[in-house]
Amino acid sequence: MKWAHRLLGLLIGATLIGLLFRVLLPAFQGGDIWVGFMESLIQQRHAVILVGLALLIALFAYVLTGLSSRPGSSYLAYETEFGAISISLKALQDFLSHIRTEFPTILALTPRVTALDESLDVVMEVKIRSGAPVPDISRMLQERARQIIHDKIGIADIRGIEIKIEEIVKEKEPKAQEITPMPPPTGDTP
């Protein structure tokens, strides 16, 4: 459907540029040429109306093909040699959220997946422990997500995996308990 959208956009654009030149050229030449052009439009009124309606229909089709494009899709669909596969983006996000268990320094992980044609964009919002090496954790998380998507889901075309560190949580230090001496119980003498 994306090819139809692009083709319609190209046709509409070329037609509008052609019509623009067709109208502006006589307008700039002025005088008798402009008057003659206007008279020819009046004589060909039915053709002008048909061209205008055709442009409106093409513009409407262009808008419709743009609305049904994939970026807002809630499924990732692709073809294999055995047939079509559609995977819910929510299911893929839930699947990717389990990577958190492989990294002890990650406290929370919220993946966001967007399907673009047969490729993916992945954004992972991460909450990590203080003291964790952020560049290393981010790189390992990107590599692991790419590997899992490729091996388990079957998608090799991943446009990007972005890691957003949303919070670095400082671990609470254990409170030192104050020890107060207790007086010996009354009545007991050593």
Q: What keywords describe this structure?
A:
190 residues; alpha+beta; 3-stranded mixed beta sheet; two-stranded antiparallel ribbon; 5 helices; 5 strands; 49% helix; elongated
Task: Give a verbal description of the structure.
The chain has five helices and five strands; from the N terminus they run αααββαββαβ. The termini are far apart. The longest helix is centred in the first third of the chain and has 28 residues. The chain has a three-stranded mixed sheet with strand order 3-4-5. Strands 1-2 form a two-stranded antiparallel sheet. The chain is an alpha+beta fold. It is elongated.
Percent helix range: 40-55%
SSE ordering: HHHEEHEEHE
Specify the biggest β-sheet. Answer: 3 strands, mixed
Output the structural class: alpha+beta
Query: Termini, distance in Å?
Result: 95 Å
Count of distinct strands: 5
The number of helical elements comes to 5
In percent, how much strand structure appears in the residues? 15-25%
Mean pLDDT over the residues: 84
Uncertain runs? 68-72
Taking all Cα atoms into account, the compactness measure Rg is: 33 Å
Q: Order of strands across the widest beta sheet?
A: 3-4-5
Q: Give the quaternary arrangement of the chains.
A: single chain
* Broad shape: elongated
